[in-house]
Structure formats: structure tokens, C-alpha cells
Design a protein that fits this description.
The chain has helices spanning 30-44, 53-73, 80-95, 97-107, 115-121, 133-144, 148-151, 188-202, 211-214, 218-229, 235-251, 285-290, 295-313, 346-361, 364-374, 383-389, 403-419, 426-445, 451-474, 478-481, 486-492, 504-524; strands at 152-155, 161-162, 166-173, 178-184, 257-258, 262-267, 271-275, 280-281, 315-317, 325-327, 333-335, 341-343. Among the domains are: 37-128 and 192-231, no CATH class; 346-524, no CATH class. The chain contains 22 helices and twelve strands.
């Protein structure tokens, strides 16, 4: 029989304890703690005072050394990109938690960042040098107010994983339950604040000065990063995120995805004890096949569950990557690490919902209004002008452009967007990053999957189960909510209408054309 908390949460069938949110003392004032954490961001971003000069010098020195060695030893050679990626990964690892977290974000951007950079930065997910066990013991004992031996019958000295903010140890409680213990690094909170202050100070000085900064708004990116990382520094917020995502999975009937149970009492700001779940590593597709796992079904469940959480409840896991996922032999996916979670208030959830409905029905102006309501454009933006300036009534296939045309198109598009004050709201960026990860997952789990057909199937499933509710919330006819415009989807992907099938291999071939033309332009430059 399933544990009694499975009806309300997306938990494993037989848990080590039963979750009763009202009986969890660490949940007191969790909303106030979240508000207080976000209130720190403007303080960190204040640029009227000098940054921590020692830290700024250390960062510039370490990254500058990496770039200098690359320029001398590898630049211009066939191993140039791989060499630069490796040197940056080593530099970020030495610089500590904030830069390791940046590297982890890059590692989830397959298809968005160069594959060499993604491959190197994947090592920052769980191969960071761990803190000494004496430091870990001291943190746990201070946080729990008891000696380690009073709480745990066993506690592995070597961590299962060590990453930017914390490291994770396997343990067994005195009461007999097998658990994992997430322990925050001892100086991470102070170091993250110093790094954000340094980034905030230097970001405005990068605008228009380097090619990367020309493609974005560096101060806005620093603000986005600060908003993302601030809540990771309090594990009580992460434990609440686990409960919220688990509740959404149960509410939507999504039983193919599991969340570990947080412990009823052993959760503090810097220590999180949770149920120990096991599974096959996300990247080990061969082991999944050997276990008889239907990898296409795993991918489909992930897509539907992710979309439903965002659309119906405004809550979703915000940091999907291979290190945060396992697959059990029965095909269920285990979600791990809930430090970053997307949260949309009701107004922004409806805007997000309108954005997705507009994408599947081909309503471009509706998508622009939704982006404005999400905060991607200022409230007074003339959306008709945006529509005209960006030529949104025509489809541009980037693979048909020459190298010069492609670069000009990208630069012109970026310049126009920045001119309208466009920015990337936190939740939208988290959603896009997750979609990029799932896009990359297709290559491993289902390389021959017809992506166009899968998009239509996901839309049909969500519309069939929730179409009436979604239409009522948006105040539209249910038939509109259920409408699927395949040509609009193709246009958004830069495809012509006559394309009938699109596999991940096709996508990779298109990306290679674009990459080679950009590389050609760079060499000529």
C-alpha cells in the first residue's frame, strides 16, 4: 500500500516517514524568509560604494591568467575552443561558489553555449573539491544543536556529491531511516554576497565594451543571477520548494516524477536532511535501456510535468540538468536539488499561460502582450511598433543566410530589442534554460523522435486534460485554447511550411550550418 502522503504529494510509494506540512516546525515563517531573502538583492546590487577590491582583483587575476595562457598556448590552433573551455572551468572552480554556480548554469545550456564549454562545465556540477569532514561535522552540529552521533547511526565522511553551494553525504538516522544530508559550505553566504557586489560594480562598465556585452545587458544579467542564487542560501526555502513541486505533481496526476521527502524536523538554514532515493544517472542511457526503461516515455513525462507545473500552478523546478535527475528502473524520474525554483504570481502565471497559448495558436501579438505582462518589455511599450520593427509577420530561416547576413540579422535583432528596453525576467529565463536542457535530452534519450509531432502530442495532452480550465482563466473560447497551428510552430523554429518531420539530428545539422557560418565570419574578422 502507498504511504498516506502520496495522495497529496509526488512522493515514492513507501516513505521513511509521513509528510504532514502542518507538523513541520521549520516551515514557520517560510514565506517571510523568502521575502526577506529577495529583499537582499537590491542591497547586493547597490553600486554607489566601492566593491570588495581584494575579491575583484582575485577574479580579474584568475580569469585574466586563464585567458593569457590560452592566448599563448592554444589560440588559433584546432584545440583552441576546448583549451579555453578547460582553462575557464579550472578558473571558475578556484574562484569558488558563485562562479561554480555560473558554470553550472552554463552546463545546462546545451545548444545555447559551445559544446566544449558545456562539456567542461558539467564537471562543476558535482566534482568540486569538498570541504573537510571536520568542517561538515561542525556545521551539522551547530545547525541541529546536537552532536552528529546523537542524530545519525552512520554518516559517510566522503560526500556523494560536492557542488557550488553545498555537498551531500549519505547517512542513516538513529531511528533507522536511510537519508542524504545536504550541508552548506561554511563561508558560502559571505562569499556570494561579495561576488555579487563585485559583479554589480563592474557590469555597467562592460556595456558596449566587449562583444559578449554587446549582445546583452550585463547589469540585468547580474540582477537575474542574484535573484536566482539568493534563495539557495536558505535550505528551509529549498525544503518548501520540494513540498510545493511535489504537491503540483500530485494535483496534476503526474506520477512518473518523484520528489524526495524532506525530513519533518531536521531542516535548518544550512542543513537539509531528506529521503534517500536511488536511480540510474540521467546520462547513462545504456543502463536505462538494459533496465527496459522507455526513454521516450521518460522524456514525454518530463515535458508534460514541467509545462503543467508552470501553466497551472506557476511553480516549476528551475534548474534541470543531468546532475539533478535520476531514472528508476520502473521508468519514474527522480528530481533532485530544489534550490532554484520558478515561481509566478497569479498575474504573471496568466501572462505565461497566454504566451504558450499564443505560441501554439500562432497569435504573435498575443505573445508580445504576454511578454510585456511578464516584464520582458516596459509597460508602455508600443507593441505594434515592435511587431513591425522585428518583422514578426515573416519567417526567417537562419540556415539560408550567408555569414554576413546572419551576423547582421542577429546584431540588428539584438539592437532593436535592447532599444525597446527588453530584458529577461527570472522565471522566463529559467523556463527557457530548462527547455534548452530538455531539447538536449532528446539527443540522448530519443534521437530519432519527431520533435514536431512530440510538440503536438504534448499540446494535445495538456489541452485535453486542462483545456476548459485554461480557457476559463484566459477568458477565451475553449476551441481557441485547443487550437494548434503547426505552421506557426515551424515559423518560430525558422522552418518552412513544407517541413514535415524534424529529428534532433536535423536540428543539430541546422545548428552546425549556423555555427560554421558564424565561425567563418569570426575568422574573416
Amino acid at each position: 500500500m502507498s504511504a498516506p502522503d502520496v495522495a497529496a504529494f509526488g512522493f515514492s510509494d513507501g516513505g521513511p516517514w509521513v509528510v504532514d506540512p502542518d507538523a513541520m516546525p521549520w516551515r514557520r515563517d517560510v514565506d517571510r524568509l523568502r521575502t526577506r531573502a529577495q529583499a537582499q538583492v537590491p542591497v547586493w546590487l547597490e553600486t554607489s560604494h566601492l566593491p570588495p577590491l581584494g575579491r575583484l582583483a582575485a577574479v580579474v587575476g584568475r580569469v585574466g591568467l586563464a585567458l593569457g595562457l590560452w592566448a599563448v598556448r592554444e589560440r588559433g590552433r584546432p584545440v583552441s575552443r576546448k583549451g579555453l573551455s578547460r582553462r575557464l572551468r579550472v578558473a571558475f572552480a578556484h574562484l569558488g561558489p558563485t562562479y561554480i554556480k555560473l558554470g553550472q548554469i552554463v552546463s545546462g545550456g546545451e545548444g545555447l553555449f559551445p559544446e566544449e564549454l558545456v562539456a567542461e562545465f558539467k564537471q562543476l556540477r558535482d566534482r568540486v573539491p569538498p570541504e573537510p569532514f571536520d568542517v561538515v561535522r561542525r556545521t551539522v552540529e551547530v545547525e541541529l544543536g546536537r552532536s552528529l552521533d546523537d542524530v545519525f547511526a552512520s554518516f559517510d565522511r566522503v560526500p556523494v556529491a560536492a557542488a557550488s553551494i553545498a555537498q551531500v553525504h549519505a547517512a542513516r538516522l538513529r531511528t533507522g531511516e536511510d537519508v542524504v544530508v545536504k550541508v552548506q559550505r561554511s563561508t558560502v553566504a559571505r562569499q556570494v554576497r561579495r561576488d555579487i557586489e563585485a559583479m554589480a560594480w563592474i557590469a555597467p562598465r562592460l556595456v558596449g565594451r566587449i562583444p559578449v556585452a554587446a549582445l546583452a545587458n550585463p547589469p540585468a544579467l547580474v540582477e537575474l543571477f542574484a535573484e536566482t542564487i539568493v534563495e539557495e542560501l536558505d535550505f528551509r526555502l529549498e525544503a518548501q520548494n520540494m513540498l510545493d513541486v511535489a504537491r503540483v505533481l500530485a494535483e496534476t496526476g503526474q506520477r512518473a516524477i518523484l520528489v524526495p521527502r524532506p525530513h519533518p524536523t531536521l531542516v535548518t538554514r544550512r542543513v537539509l536532511v531528506m529521503e534517500r532515493l536511488t536511480g540510474i544517472a540521467w546520462d547513462d542511457v545504456a543502463a536505462m535501456k538494459d533496465a527496459g526503461v522507455d526513454t521516450e516515455a521518460v522524456l514525454h513525462a518530463g515535458l508534460v510535468g514541467f509545462m503543467e507545473g508552470a501553466m497551472l500552478y506557476g511553480v516549476f523546478h528551475g534548474d534541470l540538468h543531468g546532475g539533478n535527475l535520476m531514472v528508476q528502473p520502473d521508468g519514474r524520474t527522480v528530481l533532485l536539488d530544489f534550490g532554484i525554483t520558478g515561481r509566478l504570481d497569479e498575474a504573471r502565471r496568466l501572462a505565461f499561460l497566454a504566451l504558450l497559448v499564443g505560441a501554439t495558436s500562432g497569435d504573435t501579438m498575443g505573445q508580445l502582450r504576454a511578454l510585456r505582462d511578464l516584464g520582458a518589455f516596459p509597460p508602455d511599450t508600443d507593441l505594434e511598433a515592435v511587431f513591425r520593427d522585428l518583422d514578426l509577420d515573416r519567417t526567417v530561416d537562419p540556415t539560408t543566410l550567408s555569414a554576413d547576413e546572419l551576423v547582421h540579422w542577429l546584431q540588428d535583432l539584438t539592437k532593436k530589442l535592447l532599444g525597446y528596453g527588453a530584458r529577461a525576467p527570472k522565471e522566463l529565463m529559467l523556463f527557457v534554460k530548462n527547455m534548452m536542457f530538455l531539447d538536449g535530452a532528446i539527443a540522448r534519450l530519443a534521437p530519432d523522435l519527431d520533435i514536431l509531432e512530440e510538440i503536438q502530442q504534448v499540446h494535445a495532452e495538456i489541452a485535453g486534460r486542462h483545456g476548459a480550465r485554461l480557457a476559463a482563466e484566459l477568458g477565451i473560447d475553449p476551441s481557441v485554447a485547443a487550437q494548434f497551428d503547426a505552421d506557426a510552430i515551424k515559423a518560430a523554429m525558422g522552418l518552412s511550411r513544407d517541413v514535415e518531420r524534424l529529428t534532433y539530428r536535423d536540428v543539430q545539422a541546422r545548428r552546425e550550418v549556423i555555427r560554421s557560418r558564424l565561425e567563418e565570419k569570426r575568422r574573416r574578422g
